[in-house]
Amino acid sequence: MAKMHLIPYQVEEIEDTATEIPQGVQMIQAPDVWEQSDEGSGNVIAIIDTGCDKSHPDLDGQVIDGKNFTDDGSATDYRDNNGHGTHVAGTAAAAAGEEGIAGVAPNAKLLVVKVLDANGSGNYEWIIDGINYATDWEGPNSEKVRAISMSLGGPEDVPELYQAVKRAIDRGIPVVCAAGNDGDDRPDTDEYAFPGAYNEVIQVGAVNYDREIAPFSNTNNEIDIVAPGVEILSTYADGKYARLSGTSMATPHVSGALALVTSIAEKQFDRKLTEGELYAQLVRRTVPLGYPKSAEGNGLVALDVLNRFEQLFQTFNTVFK
């Protein structure tokens, strides 16, 4: 059986320092709902990837637990010897400190599931075991994973992989997957990577800062949503920062967004929401960009759009005398 790989991505540049809220985090309006969502507090996001540099200043204290399923080191050693996992983790939930960067949900916690080795490849078995681990994981205070983030993919539809994904979703955990970077800049031709192409997952395409679909972003009839994925600034190996491009980078914007949406919606409903309800709440917070559904799905994540509509509505209903 073929191996599963990191979806190829582009390293644009590596930097020693960064002090800002990254443009992608701002573009999806995350800071506008931080107060309302308590920055995603109480939610755990599972990052299924190459591990994580949890000693990075911006990730210190963000990682609640983890496990290594690869043959790189022991089961308890989930350090990132690639860099990709650390980048994805930072976009989802880097701490918004005095210095460094902020992720989408700075108060969320990260469960690090290392299923890809230093070269960014892994056996399907590692990935399947990693998904099942995240699904079953329980924290010291009975925390459970509220979103699974996977910026990886392969060409093969393996039944056991589908079963693991389906099991997570049946347990109420949204599974967010990168669409893949084999796009040909034509929305009328399909490119698929698994698990992204499964109907049940939230498949994420990439846009640039001009809200244009990235030419490399896979297009197909299962795309659910798009998020920033070009020149994304985030945490990187050895305490550094990097700007990377790929649907891999778009994915954690959505898993982080889910932590914020979960906090807001479950407060409003005063109960735990199902996976389908959480997906519906996320989709309510998107704006169409005018591309075919095969390219943008429901559109770009815009977390504050409901509040902005409400303000507009109030203005519209004001009685002028």
UniProtKB/TrEMBL annotation:
<dbReference type="GO" id="GO:0006508">
    <property type="term" value="P:proteolysis"/>
</dbReference>
<dbReference type="InterPro" id="IPR023827">
    <property type="entry name" value="Peptidase_S8_Asp-AS"/>
</dbReference>
<dbReference type="InterPro" id="IPR000209">
    <property type="entry name" value="Peptidase_S8/S53_dom"/>
</dbReference>
<dbReference type="GO" id="GO:0004252">
    <property type="term" value="F:serine-type endopeptidase activity"/>
</dbReference>
<feature type="active site" description="Charge relay system">
    <location>
        <position position="49"/>
    </location>
</feature>
<dbReference type="InterPro" id="IPR022398">
    <property type="entry name" value="Peptidase_S8_His-AS"/>
</dbReference>
<dbReference type="InterPro" id="IPR050131">
    <property type="entry name" value="Peptidase_S8_subtilisin-like"/>
</dbReference>
<keyword id="KW-0645">Protease</keyword>
<keyword id="KW-0964">Secreted</keyword>
<keyword id="KW-0479">Metal-binding</keyword>
<dbReference type="InterPro" id="IPR023828">
    <property type="entry name" value="Peptidase_S8_Ser-AS"/>
</dbReference>
<protein>
    <submittedName>
        <fullName>Serine protease</fullName>
    </submittedName>
</protein>
<comment type="similarity">
    <text>Belongs to the peptidase S8 family.</text>
</comment>
<keyword id="KW-0106">Calcium</keyword>
<keyword id="KW-0720">Serine protease</keyword>
<dbReference type="Pfam" id="PF00082">
    <property type="entry name" value="Peptidase_S8"/>
</dbReference>
<dbReference type="GO" id="GO:0005576">
    <property type="term" value="C:extracellular region"/>
</dbReference>
<dbReference type="InterPro" id="IPR036852">
    <property type="entry name" value="Peptidase_S8/S53_dom_sf"/>
</dbReference>
<feature type="active site" description="Charge relay system">
    <location>
        <position position="84"/>
    </location>
</feature>
<feature type="domain" description="Peptidase S8/S53">
    <location>
        <begin position="40"/>
        <end position="286"/>
    </location>
</feature>
<keyword id="KW-0378">Hydrolase</keyword>
<dbReference type="GO" id="GO:0046872">
    <property type="term" value="F:metal ion binding"/>
</dbReference>
<feature type="active site" description="Charge relay system">
    <location>
        <position position="248"/>
    </location>
</feature>
<dbReference type="InterPro" id="IPR015500">
    <property type="entry name" value="Peptidase_S8_subtilisin-rel"/>
</dbReference>
<dbReference type="InterPro" id="IPR034202">
    <property type="entry name" value="Subtilisin_Carlsberg-like"/>
</dbReference>
